[in-house]
Amino acid sequence: MPMETANMFNPASKVSKISHCSSMEQYKQMHDKSLKDPEAFWGEITKEFHFEEKVKGKFLDYNFDITKGKIFVRWLEGAKTNICYNCLDRHVLAGKGDQVAFYWEGNDPADAEVVTYGELLKDVCRVANVLKAKGVAKGDRVAIYMPMVKHLVVAMLAVARIGAVHSIVFGGYSADSLADRMMDAQASVLITADAVWRGPKLIALKEIADDALKLCSAKDLKVKMNLVVQHMNKVTAPQPASNGTAANGNVAKKTHFDDKGNFKVNWDPSVDVWWHEALSTVSSECDPVWMDTEDPLFMLYTSGSTGKPKGVQHTIGGYMLYTATTFKYSFDYHQGDVYFCTADIGWITGHSYVTYGPLLNGATSVLFEGVPTYPHTGRFWEIIEKYKVSKFYTAPTAIRALMKFGDEPVKKYDLSSLAVLGSVGEPINPEAWLWYYRVVGDSNVSIVDTFWQTETGGHVITPLPGATPCKPGSACFPFFGVDVALLDEEGREIKGEGEGYLVFCRPWPGMMRTVYGNHERFETTYFKKFPGFYCTGDGARRDSDGYIWVTGRIDDMLNVSGHLLSTAQVESSLVEHPSVAEAAAVARPHSIKGECLYCFVTLTEGNSFEDKLIAELKNKVRSKIGAFASPDFIQLAPGLPKTRSGKIMRRVLRKIAVGDKDFGDISTLADPSIVEKLFELRPKESKK
Ligand code: WTA
After folding, report:
1. Domain ranges of the chain
2. Which parts of the chain register pLDDT below 50?
3. Cα(687)–Cα(127) distance, rounded to whole angstroms?
4. Is the CB of 348 under 6 A from ligand 1?
5. 592 sits in which H/E element
6. Alpha-carbon distance 29 to 54, whole Å?
7. Hey, which bits of 169-280 come out as E strands?
């Protein structure tokens, strides 16, 4: 082990002592083997799972070089399996039916429920039977728009059990976004819930889903069923707080509840079906459908630089091996651990590390419906104490938001059960890393800064908590099966120390296989820039010790609170407003969100830039994308800095957004004088 210094932290000895991988030597050996002989490495792991039929063709076949033909990746050719069977039946058959799969913890601390593997399996079979009765079959797409409740896990596994494909849309997206995604996937069924409290706020999911379904039917998408979980009658509503923080909840209570306090929903009997009623009429047994390993498991939409989201498609076999293995090694999971990932299942982190990774390992997890600051800022720590959580996984934006409240809300709780703390979503700044380590982890934990993407399916660069000495802010080294390179602009590989484009040289089992319905977009987005490599879109630096530091996106993508957005997506929402002629959105650093949106708008003739318009524009983005995408700043732009060929020079806008006059060379601009004008028009609140 290297000497521990202010910049280098050794794994906690309590983790190393029992770890699946407890030294860098062991990591290197395993990593070498995974690259030299993928079949031997992953073949060994397949033995832990149930395959109805074994591999008959090539274990791995692929083409990463677009100049040689179509890009494709195939693992475990000819094998058949079912991921739901491997998540549930396998454990129940092994006598673990009574083991807790999830401790569900509600938005309000008064609400909690325990769900075992056996109960989960029965409910999954019931929902699978309901879907089958509606004619949902192998390959059909089912959209899911739900809060963080056990029913969400049940729904996705039921879809997988019958060989259908789930498309989960995060419950913070707007009706427009939900409809766009349902249209793209041509989903024939939607599964949702009446509503949910998120902190003090009401999210009326069914109402939003109703609007989305109207948009879909206007475009001729026939949705056969909207299966609705009745959730509101089971949970505690926010109480009016003395400081008025639950105000939003109280307004909601007046408009969304009847006199008896029941939550009101509009009901269309031709599509709407209550979940509990449908489940009461069907059997709790349902045979799994045996699927080809390369059949699709799900699609999950992620932002694309053209503004139209891409349906990232994952397949069954490789994703299963990869999420199971990364979960086991990155968190060093052992029986008896209690694991808590705070991500919403609507994002990839929830897919891979709330549902599939943990269940494939037979783990016990906390499933949390609420937010970190409600009803108090110690909510995460309270939950960790309550369930004696040993492995905890959250995002830098949450860590930074909680750091603001100081150490006291953390120190109130006994967090001595913690052994591994994970981070995901964006580069973690060393200050947040150190606070996480010292205050939350009491300097007696291993931290894992896991780098990955919706597209990669699971962790691709990460420390291993029993083996890797960490440098705060570095995601460290590639996971098993992952072959990393850094390239310069011309595609030349940078060996040793240096900075460049982060790419991968060959497929790992969990990587995406295509963009749903648009294979060409898959090829051009990820494989065209550097033939022979998968291009992440991120930049990275390798230091003299070989550590990888991901520096962030190098395309027109921004990362708000760990959620990727494309500037094009935001701009196209803004220009839909009749007063806006043109818009440009850029990222501005933000102390909690990591980055926030700063937008420039050029108005159409005769419109003036007033507070009312600013509010309307913010609302436009919220309703087109979702509340999380709301811009922090909107400024008037009499013109945009464009090159003579008409390309917006975004780096200049990024400088203006932060009030930096060091513009660099702007001589190629068609009208350089616009830069000074824009600088003067910066909104007052942006100067803080
Ligand atoms: C960023 C989230 C640095 C990165 C799992 C990536 C990170 C994008 C890290 C994917 C990390 C995620 N360090 N950057 N540990 N984790 N990112 O698809 O820019 O929502 O490309 O997947 O988040 O975001 P996505």
Report:
1. 12-79+452-551, 82-306+314-371, 563-687
2. none
3. 53
4. yes
5. none
6. 27
7. 189-193, 196-198, 201-203, 225-229, 272-274
Pairing of strands 112-116, 272-274: unpaired
Residue-wise pLDDT for 304-317, tens only, equals 777 788 999 999 99
Whole-number pLDDT of residue 360: 98
As its CATH architecture, domain 82-306+314-371 has 3-Layer(aba) Sandwich (3.40)
Q: How many residues does the chain have?
A: 688
Through-space distance between the first and last CA atoms of the chain, rounded to whole angstroms: 45
Alpha carbon nearest to ligand 1 atom 15, residue: 451
* Whole-number Å distance between alpha carbons of 71 and 239: 55
pLDDT digits (tens, 9 = 90+) for 313-340: 999 999 999 999 999 999 999 999 999 9
Ligand 1 atom having least distance to the Cα of 557: 19
- pTM (2 decimals)? 0.93
Report the residue among 394, 453, 454, 459 best suited for mutation to probe ligand 1: largest number of ligand atoms under 8 A from its CB: 453
- Contact present, 575 and 620 (Cβ < 8 Å): no
State whether the Cα torsion 594-153-205-174 is positive or negative: positive
Which atom from ligand 1 is nearest to the alpha carbon of 347?
20
* % of the chain beyond a pLDDT of 70: 98
List, in sequence order, every residue forming a beta bridge with 485; answer none if it has no partner.
503
| The one-letter amino acid at 133 | A
Query: Which architecture, in CATH terms, is 12-79+452-551?
Result: Roll (2.30)
| Ligand 1 nearest-atom number relative to CA 428 | 13
What's the chain's Rg over C-alpha atoms? 25
Q: Does domain 563-687 have CATH number 3.30.300.30?
A: yes
